[in-house]
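Methods — Computational structure assignment.
A single polypeptide chain was analysed. Its primary sequence is given first, followed by the predicted tertiary structure written as structure tokens.
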Amino acid sequence: MVLLATRLGLPLGDVLSMARVRKWAETTGFEARAAADYAIWRNASARVRRDVRPLKRKLAEYRRLKRAVADPCAADPRNFEEDQCLWRDNGCAQPCIDAGLARDAGFPF
């Protein structure tokens, strides 16, 4: 996400996300059923990790924001109700994330 934000010239807050869907995929067997897709994803992820190395400071800031803002938002089930999601079941908790970023004194707006 840091690499994407850097390449698109976006603030980190615009790409801040949560891992709730990933946890679902791991616990429901979806990952095993989509093994070929995950193989492609792992290869792409290796390239992204290589390309993000020069962005260590941005990556550290993204991880800090994730811990400070996105993770607490993910813990509240109210943030996954339909009216809190951009696409009914996707892009959830954005109002919570935006509010958290606004409170975060270290976030560069």
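Note: The two ends are 18 Å apart (CA to CA).
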